[in-house]
Amino acid sequence: MKRISLFFILLFSLGGLSATYAQSLDAYVAAADTSFKKKDYYSALKYYEIASEIQDNEDPAIMYKYAEAARLINAYTTADSAYQSVLDLNAAEAYPLTLFWLANMKQSLGKYQQAKALYERFITESPLAEGYYLQVAERAADESEWAMEMLEN
Asked: How many CB atoms lie within 10 A of CB 111?
């Protein structure tokens, strides 16, 4: 009888933990979204970071927002990694600027060959590759090519 009681106590306490877990995830995401709207990108980055860790970096919406916050405070390495995670989660269709911003992060980090390839991929694959973003991507691909040539000399 004691074992059955212990089993039910353990079962209900774990159920309560999962509810607390979900609530804390929602609270972190809400705090991050609020900070982002207030243009407090550093705080948003920290909250999204915690939320992404809770989700084991498996939620593309959180990872994309995390990448955006990192990009907006010039944390290029962090943004690069987060945008790559969005691609790895096969969520680029839901976030069509992922390739563009990942290429931009690669370029900012001096990874010109990767940047050029990603800009070219954005130009050929993205539905947003028109107008402003198309012009910027074409120019940035050319700039990456120029930078690679300058590094060779």
From this structure: 16
Q: What DSSP designation does 95 have? A: S
Q: Is 131 left (phi over 0), alpha (psi -120 to 50) or beta?
A: left
Radius of gyration (Cα) for the chain, nearest Å? 21
Question: What does the pLDDT profile of the chain (153 residues) look like in tens digits?
Answer: 555 554 444 444 444 444 445 569 999 999 999 999 999 999 999 999 999 999 998 999 999 999 999 999 999 999 999 999 999 999 988 999 999 999 999 999 999 999 999 999 999 988 777 889 999 999 999 999 999 988 887
Residue written as token pair 């931009």:
104
Contact 62, 31 (CB under 8 A): no
User: At residue 59, what are phi and psi to the nearest 5 degrees?
Assistant: -105, 110
- Check: CB of residue 64 under 8 Å from CB of residue 79: no
